[in-house]
Specification:
The chain has seven helices and 18 strands. It is an alpha+beta fold and 351 residues long. The chain has an 18-stranded antiparallel β-sheet that branches.
């Protein structure tokens, strides 16, 4: 497995020829093209590559990806624990401690052929069966980072001093199934993201060009907003990440209270799920980091052997129905797990 060369792929961009790896965000203000993976818990890995080229994502090669059996997935929170967590969050909301909390669970399954497990082969399957605007691969097995993402959500993009975020809140099978709660939740998180960006942007420069725009994705729809600002003169990547991480849409509001409750209720670390995944071109002053949702990663240190992991969650508000929130996590996971396990292809890719 470890003879697979380090690689990063984001849409039509492919980076190879690994030069160096660092955990220091200041490197992102230096020079070169960087792949970036930030775990929800704060571990940052930045990998600089010498070669960047444009090429389409290759078509999947039959048999190249061998995923877990579809019945082998286990969840860090089962249905009972998850719905109890939703009840507990509603108690915190009633007490005035918090307004919204994103409650997540991590699904895991053993890899049948870990020595041949290549996240870029999984990315090819995802590109065909679940295309996403921020899809990609970061393959750094020697550094413990092997990620395949089909993220639909923009965490941060930069172009010069302009910074933008695209928080998603509100998910349903169809537009008609979106609830009033979904719109309220989106507005709540937009306020949080505005506040986060306001800490590093010029006074008065933070705007909301789009609020609760409807965006279709394979098998579901999302409400997506856009928050934009102009970085002040002193802010670089260390300040930007410090002000905005972890992303507001996958933590809650107020963020500090939500993070305390997440730590209490969730049974497993999120890792790259709900973190930041993407690229920074320090030479051009451009970047695109996704929120690490719809994301698979390989954990080679798991006992008794390597596993594939995937996260799913939902935003909990006072208006949440515990069973409905569990079903939302099932909706978000079903298609992706089927693709990774080969069941989606076997069923004729319907759904």
């Amino acid at each position: 497995m470890h003879d697979l060369a380090p690689l990063a792929r984001f849409g039509g961009l492919v980076a190879s020829g690994l030069r160096d790896v660092t955990h220091d965000p200041e490197a992102l203000d230096s020079a070169g093209f960087w792949a970036v993976a930030a775990d929800f818990e704060g571990r940052l890995t930045c990998a600089r590559f010498d070669e960047v080229r444009t090429e389409p994502v290759p078509a999947p090669v039959p048999g190249q990806w061998r995923g877990p059996a579809s019945g082998d997935w286990t969840s860090s929170l089962d249905r009972d624990a998850y719905t109890k967590g939703v009840h507990r969050i509603r108690e915190y909301i009633a007490a005035g401690d918090v307004y919204q909390v994103n409650l997540c669970r991590v699904l895991s399954a053993p890899l049948p052929a870990p020595d041949r497990a290549d996240v870029d082969a999984l990315t090819a399957l995802l590109a065909r069966d679940n295309p996403a605007p921020y899809a990609g691969t970061i393959r750094l097995p020697e550094h413990g980072v092997e990620i395949a993402t089909a993220s639909p959500e923009l965490y941060l993009s930069t172009a010069g001093r302009t910074v933008e975020s695209g928080p998603i809140k509100g998910t349903a099978r169809t537009a008609g199934e979106l609830l009033e709660k979904d719109y309220a939740e989106n507005v709540m998180i937009v306020d949080l993201v505005r506040n986060d960006l306001g800490r590093v942007c010029a006074t008065g420069s933070v705007t909301v060009p789009a609020l609760c725009a409807l965006e279709p994705h394979p098998g579901l729809v999302h409400l997506v907003s856009t928050v934009r600002g102009e970085l002040d003169g002193k802010a670089g990547w260390p300040e930007l990440l410090s002000a905005t991480f972890p992303p507001g849409s996958v933590s809650g509001a107020p963020k500090s209270s939500a993070l305390r409750i997440i730590e209490e209720l969730e049974a497993a670390p999120r890792g790259p799920y709900c973190g930041g995944i993407g690229w920074v071109d320090a030479d051009r002053g451009t970047a695109a980091l996704a929120v690490g949702i719809r994301t698979f990663w390989i954990d080679r240190d798991a006992a008794p052997g390597p596993v594939l992991r995937f996260g799913a969650g939902a935003g909990i508000t006072w208006g949440s129905d515990p069973e409905g929130e569990w079903e939302e996590t099932e909706l978000k996971a079903a298609r992706l797990l089927a693709i990774a396990s080969g069941a989606y292809e076997a069923s004729g890719r319907t759904g």
